Amino acid sequence: MAVAGKKLSKKLEEIYKRIKAEIPWEPIGPTPMPEIPDLRQWDMRLLKTYTPFYMPFCDLCCFCTYGKCDLTEGRRGACGIDIATQQARFVLLACLMGCSAHAAHGGHILEFLIERHGPDKKINLGTFIDLEAPNIRTVVGLKPETLGDLQIALEYVFKEIAHLLDSCHTGQEGSALDYESKALHASMLDHVGMEIADIAQIVGFDFPTSVAETPLVDMGWGAIDKSKPVILVSGHNPATSTVVIDYLREHNLEDQVEVCGLCCTALETTRYSDKAKIIGPLSRALFFMRAGIADVILTDEQCIRTDTPQEAAKVGSAVIACLDKAMYGLEDATELDTDEIVRRMVDNKEQFAILDSPKAAEVAVRVAMAIAPRRKKGWLAEEEAIELAKKCTNCGICEQVCPNLFSIGDGITEVAKGNFDVIRKQFNLCIGCGKCEQECTNKVPIFKIMQIAASMETWKCRAGRGPVMDTEIRNVGAPITLGTIPGIIALVGCSNYPDIDDIADMVDEFAKRKYIVVLTGCAAMVAGMKKDKDGLTVYEKYPPNFDAGGVINIGSCVSNAHISGAAIKIANIFAALPLRGNYEVMADYVLNRVGACGVAWGAMSQKAASIGTGFNRLGVPVVLGPHSSKYRRLYLSRKEEDDWKVMDARKREIVDTVEPAPEHLAYVCETKEKAMPMIAKLCIRRNDTPQGRAIKLNHYISLYRKYIGAGLPEDIHLFVRRDADIPLVYKKEVRAYLQEIGWQPREPIGLPTLIGTYPTKVPLDAVIH
Question: Which residues lie closer than 8 Å to 80 by C-beta, 6 or more apart?
Fold first, then answer.
């Protein structure tokens, strides 16, 4: 095969065959199905400015039998590894776990849906979405038209995972920067895997798509009708929960059995049924299980409590493990007779793994209906809580083991006095790990006592809507890239929060300032778990459109691919840049022109690590919550000390812009008060027009004054290019400060790009449209 007169290598010939190169929907860029070295130069250019900053969680390496090896004070391990490279290897492993979780999820869903619909099932995401798979098109170079086409992309992801994991073996990679490049590669693949999973789910389960105003879903334990049999689904994979809904519908039982969910399976199930309820994020899992409200618990995969069988047994809830990722040592009853399984679960209280979704669904419903009338589902009375709390001596052990370091003992001793105010505030700080109760020397049932702190209020969460529509991108492309919409804020990730109210507060702050606010996963649920003075959640208060001031629940964890996909769509639909096998051009455009910032405020999982790092490779900075320092690595610049040179593509000359825009790629903040000014600042881009820059600086200054203190941010001069950039309301004050420090105006760059500032196969003309 020859392309543009050049004969292709055998490897490239095979890639072109797999991506159906003969279909000329777009010219093929330089990196279809990129391997580890193919985007390495882009990574190294990013890492030159955004240097990895390591925070070792452990100073030792215990990977092989040479160890333990002390890596402090410049020492190297027996294999030759130094401490920075060891931290980077940990980062890569975390990103690989996250990428593998989503890719395996996608693989299982594809297998399940192809069995149901066949490989030729057409991908149709609705009237307003033609660019159906921006990540797959950009990275793989394939335009998927059927479920079978998604398998081609997934096989590529699996192959790359194997090579990346290989590099983690003892006696392999010896460079921290190359491990970081590999982590960026794994995390880019994660966004491909997530996109595969969610497109398959949307097509196969008929989830909402091409619609903004999805239904509002009831959320919270107060929303659960405890008079009915209750089935709890927990995890991320909807292959079983949707079949439970199907079984209930087929047997006319949907109004007689309550189905509720924890974590992302809750979001997926409510995309399928308007009768399903959301309990809340992972941080509420242990609390809800110990409350004993669920008659049957179905687990699938990812972010499920590993002690689910033990906790369920304590309160008499039945358990069915539905996926091979987590079987808990249970007997595999997949091939057993259904009646026999039901009998043993009801009579003997046995727990099983059932890997056949229809069988698991039938068993769950039948068991729930059989045992529900026998079980007592009481909520703790205040008088009972007072008596239980009297066992507390406020010794302080619980505070020592609490990840959020709040004094649980103070709250419990106040309960003993009949005062519930402190424990109610503390409940919002609780991440649900259970360490306090485990370590309590007086065996105080802390989680049970917290029942009187847990609000029985019902909240609202908008059902996940899937991809951003192409029509929405056309409407907002210009104002986002010019800066007149100040930015896209993506709140994603887990529920390891310093305070659960932080998410709703940040959403409200940025939505009222006319940023576009998108949410996924646990953050999407938690945003709806706070009401304003009028009794409204942010989903009821703000419109669901992808436009200025909109608050949009994109969906579950795998729906994060639609956020990165939206950034790519801006480059392709609005800027008309070809995306096929053209990752560097897309990432360069996003970094320099799309004002977006991710916020993973409660990130705790390896999936959150790979999701965030994938955004980083695409040029989107991410602000992390305080616990995320435990990921071991940030991507930080040193402001003026670092390299802020870009190519002015129109003049074809390299220019030192001076301005750190965006300043960091991965940054930890301790409090929401510190985070919000930083989020606003990280939406600043080199391409901002004077009007757009003035709008962004107005928000940066006003958020700084609202949450940090009086005066101006000390780095404001770095982001003022000309007098027209200064916000009108702060003009006098900023001018005086700039004059005082000897600031000099500089010309904005007409078409900023990193292409041309580092070795790359991408020609400069590729970024000019």
Answer: 174
- 109-147 exposure pattern, b = at least 16 Cβ within 10 A, e = fewer: bbebbbeeeeeebebebbebbebbbbbbbbbbbbbbbbb
CA nearest to 43, candidates 193, 190, 177, 192: 177
Tokens of 256: 């007689």
* pTM given for the model: 0.97
Q: Are 67 and 645 in contact (CB under 8 A)?
A: no
Long-range Cβ pairs for the range 10-19 (8 Å, 24+): 15/141, 18/142, 18/152, 18/156, 19/140, 19/141, 19/142, 19/152, 19/581
Q: Residue 716 and residue 660: Cα distance in Å, rounded?
A: 11
Nearest to 483 by CA among 690, 730, 717: 690
N-to-C CA span, the chain: 29
* Burial group, residue 170, by CB count within 10 angstroms (0-12, 13-18, 19+): middle
pLDDT over 90 percentage in the chain: 94
Residue written as tokens 């400015």?
49
* Structure token digits, residue 8: 């292709």
Cβ atoms within 10 Å, residue 674: 15
> In angstroms, rounded to a whole number, what is the distance separating the alpha carbons of residues 640 and 637?
9
Q: Dihedrals φ, ψ of 103, to 5°?
A: -65, -40
Distances (CA, A) of 343 to 243, 347, 362, 367: 21, 6, 13, 8
Residues in the chain: 769
| Cβ atoms 513, 550 nearer than 8 A | no
What pLDDT digit, counting tens, does each position of 502-560 carry? 999 999 999 999 999 999 999 999 999 999 999 999 999 999 999 999 999 999 999 99
Structure tokens at 428: 């919002």
Give the model confidence (pLDDT) of 411-442 as tens digits: 999 999 999 999 999 988 999 999 999 999 99
Other CB atoms within a 10 A radius of the CB of residue 723 amount to: 12
The closest of 641, 648, 644, 640 to 656, measured between CA atoms, is 644
- The answer, yes or no, to whether residue 4 has pLDDT greater than 60, is no
How far is Cα 649 from Cα 683, in angstroms, rounded to an integer? 22
> Are the CB atoms for 286 and 432 separated by under 8 Å?
yes
Q: Which helix (H) or strand (E) holds 476?
A: helix 470-482
Per-residue confidence at 753, pLDDT binned at 50, 70, 90?
very high
Indicate if the pLDDT at residue 109 is higher than 70.
Answer: yes
Contacts (Cβ under 8 Å, ≥6 apart) of 32 = 15, 16, 19, 140, 141, 580, 581
> What is Dmax (Cα atoms) for the chain?
85
3-state secondary structure of 361: helix
The separation between CA 209 and the C-alpha centre of its own chain, rounded to angstroms, equals: 20
Give the mean model confidence (pLDDT) for residues 72-101.
Answer: 97
Region 254-267 average pLDDT: 97
Alpha helices in 354-393 (DSSP H): 357-371, 382-389
The CA distance from 182 to 161, in Å, is: 10
Query: Could you tell me the two tokens for 286?
Result: 């242990």
